[in-house]
Design goal:
endoplasmic reticulum, 9 helices, disordered N terminus, Reticulon, transmembrane, mainly alpha, RTN1-4, single chain, 220 residues
């Protein structure tokens, strides 16, 4: 084979591979890109669907929402299956089952993938258990008091909002705060630094006044 032809084929194959890789990267939209509205259409779709699901859960029970979703999915697939069967009968074609590609697709979870996610989850669970043990057994008095204050404030939040309402507000804030922060990052960071300084000063004064409070060293 001519060296120039061979190099041209290699270049074209590399260009095709690079094009596929770039297309795959563009098709994958991370959670960070979604909440920052990098692609307004996809972010709007995800936000709309999540709000629809949460509002449905607020109006109906979980069982009803899941049942309606599965029923809607079944109606779509059954209708499409019957439609394709009628079209094949009229046209006398032998295309076969319209969902054959999906049926033949392997949807089982590989044991390695399952173990990988279990190990990753176990790391977070052990970290959370250790943190809870440290807080509830009062290893550090100030940290335990901060948790008590947070839980006391949450009793008031729970008296005003239920769980679904909090999730709806959290979903709205999740999609609204990141773009606002990105546009006003400098000003918001200044206010956050001022608030952090005041909180640290208050905590330091509280640690000095509390009898028997364990002060953490810089090494910790």
């Amino acid at each position: 084979m001519d060296p120039m032809t061979q190099s041209a084929q290699i270049s074209s194959s590399q260009g095709f591979a690079d094009g596929q890789n770039s297309a795959a990267k563009e098709s994958k939209l991370s959670v960070k890109d979604l909440i920052h509205w990098r692609d307004p259409k996809k972010s709007g779709l995800v936000f709309g669907l999540s709000m629809l699901l949460l509002l449905s859960l607020a109006a109906f029970s979980v069982i009803s929402v899941v049942s309606y979703l599965l029923l809607a999915l079944l109606c779509v697939t059954i209708t499409f299956r019957i439609y394709k069967s009628v079209v094949q009968a009229v046209q006398k074609s032998t295309e076969g089952h319209p969902f054959k590609t999906l049926i033949d697709k392997d949807v089982s979870i590989p044991p390695e993938t399952f173990r990988k996610h279990v190990d990753a989850s176990l790391t977070y669970i052990n970290r959370a258990l250790k943190q809870m043990s440290r807080l509830f057994l009062v290893e550090d008095l100030v940290d335990s008091l901060k948790l008590a204050v947070v839980m006391w404030l949450m009793t008031y939040v729970g008296a005003v909002f239920n769980g679904i309402t909090i999730l709806i507000l959290a979903n709205i804030l999740l999609f609204a705060v990141p773009p606002v922060y990105e546009k006003n990052k400098t000003q918001i960071d200044q206010y956050i630094d001022v608030a952090r300084t005041q909180v640290n000063t208050t905590i330091a004064k509280l640690q000095e006044k509390l009898p028997g409070a364990v002060k953490r060293s810089k090494a910790e």
